[in-house]
What does this fold into?
Amino acid sequence: MSTLPLEKADIPAEMEHTRTPRRVLDQRPLITLLLIVAGVVTVCIGTVLAWFLGLPDIRTVADYRPQVATLVLDRRGRPIDAIAHQFRIVIPYSEMPALLPRAFVAAEDSRFWEHTGLDGWSIARAAINNLLAGRRSQGGSTITQQITRGLLLTPEKSYLRKLAEAILAHRIERMLTKEEILYLYLNEIYLGEGAYGVEAAARTYFNKHARDLDLGEIAVLAGMPQSPSNYSPLRNPEAARARQRYVLNRMAEDNIVTAEAARAAWDQGLRTSANWRRAVHGYFSLYVRSQLLTRFTEEELFRKGLRVATTVDSVLQLAAARAVQEGVARVHERHPQEPPPQGALVALDTASGRILAMIGGADFQSAPFNRAVQANRQPGSAFKPLVYAAALEGGVPPATVLQDTPLALPSGGGRLWRPTNFRGEYRGALSLAEALVHSSNVAAVRLLRQTGLDPVVRLSGRLGITAPLQPDLTLALGASPVSVLELTAAYAAFANRGLFHKPVGITRVQDRDGRVTPWPQAPAERVLSARTAEWLHTVMAQVVQRGTGTNARGVRGASGKTGTTDNNIDAWFVGSAPGLTTGVWIGHDRSASLGAGETGGRAAAPVWQQFMQLAVR
It folds into this structure.
């Protein structure tokens, strides 16, 4: 029996009633999907909005607080070094020569004054050139975009970062004037050799302020942002010249300068200066930094833009470096060995203890260890004046006679210690003065036995010697190591009528807001009677005239003492001339012999004389 299809009319009413709810239920998944999409969109919009609101911001130039170098100044206020992770000196836009910002605009962003942060023409041109070159050879970033990249964003390369860069560039253009944008750019941009900003670069490459740059020098700096290392005039002068030509041509094409002015600037050539942060000041700068860290943190030194006024004299510093280098070279020529010897020199203002020169080695760039401060070396006979001073202060009469004859003393274990004179020469009975002039070892040991160890150790401490001293008779022969700085300061008290000044290298510190803080200066302390000090000064003048220090002659009013250790390992000369006390050490870092005959008188005294002849003038 066959069945027929049901017509709509044949469907019972109950069944017709049940079909309507079915259609309603079929729409629910769509509604759910729409709700989910709406929720996702809401979350995305919220995320984008939060990301947008969370972007870093610069709304005024007052928000610009970059790392600023701590400048170290000599005693005449001239910069000699900078302490910085980023060597930057922020200067106002008004201090920049008019051509400087215009040169950077011509080279980097010729439509800077027209666009609002993004330059579509530059982007399109760079894209076409890169396509033709088959590689990324040009960028289309504006100066404003470069600021956002350097100041506000990470260096990562992503589409999200590029979007952030565009947004921030537009925002900065709305918040700041064009001049303020250039102020940020020209103080922030990296220009090679560790220099950030145009002021630091001007000092690095031309040893002058940015305000003093001429057109040719301006063009060199303006050509560097694309590749600071490759276009450094110190490293790659030919590439720097090519970029200089490009910038000068761009400036002429944009009618910023005349073609004649551009040609004249080009014809002057590349006239860079030796880096003003020369190695000659490196050792003293490290010393200053160590002193600053007793009152400031590393972070403050790198960010606060301090200006540190110091006591050093740039002219004397250069003379000291030259004297040490030439003295070391002479020793090395007489006794060639590798590595060559090292040297150190410290010059103090006798009346105040201020450090006028400090050289801690023959070459700071290859060996930045400061041997004038960080190394303690045996002073040999250069320590003897401290023994004589303690004896005189203890009541030993200046007319005392000492025996300069062979001496044998028990040294424990049934053995004898026999101190000997240089070359085994003995002079018999000597006055106190003659014993010091001729640097008799056995006479100094006899004097120390008579005086006692404790008075010498106590007086040495009052004279600024902080190194531990051996409590035995070898102290008379300078067997206990001391630093050049401390021994020189002790000698300054001899020349200053018994008044001791703790050495100081800083006079004041000024922060970036102009607040000045004087640096503590220790008061003078009387450590010797004027009579004892004058006796020592007079006798040591005879050391120079007819004793072991004759190679220091020729300096007006000179007095001093040589020092030589066993096997000619350390050579010293420490002495004074009117107003100045200087100590010199020559030796090897690993305590090797300097060579036969290299005594303090032969190796160190000529260095002292060369420096002091210039210094006292």
